[in-house]
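User: quick one, fold this
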Amino acid sequence: MPDILESININVSEVVAYARINGGFEKDLRTVIARKIATAAAHEAGLNVSDDELQKVFDIWRISLGLNKAADTGPWLEARHLMIEDVEQFLETNILVSKLKDKLYSESDANRYLTHPKVEETIRELVYAEWLAKELG
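Assistant:
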């Protein structure tokens, strides 16, 4: 089987076509665009990520994947054809989006959302799930 895998070539356009056919492409594209917009807005608002913050989140991310030693990370990245910079950019964007959400929340009138029908339904479902968990032991 490894001989067959070595002879197969896959290009990005094939992956994109597959994702479009299966309906995943548009969702992922929207997510990437949203993250880019949020990152730009975070930078514009003066938000940034320190090296210490990035290192802490990187360590948590690494351990969450079972990469308990820093030396385990290299083979994991190689197997996925990623570079450390790809992961750092991904995690930095996560941090910036989180900071932007915090900023937007602190500047908003959050109470107006509590009466939104979707929020009320979510709370209703959470209350039911909690009750059911207690009933089931």
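User: anything notable?
Assistant: The chain has two domains: 2-106, 111-137.
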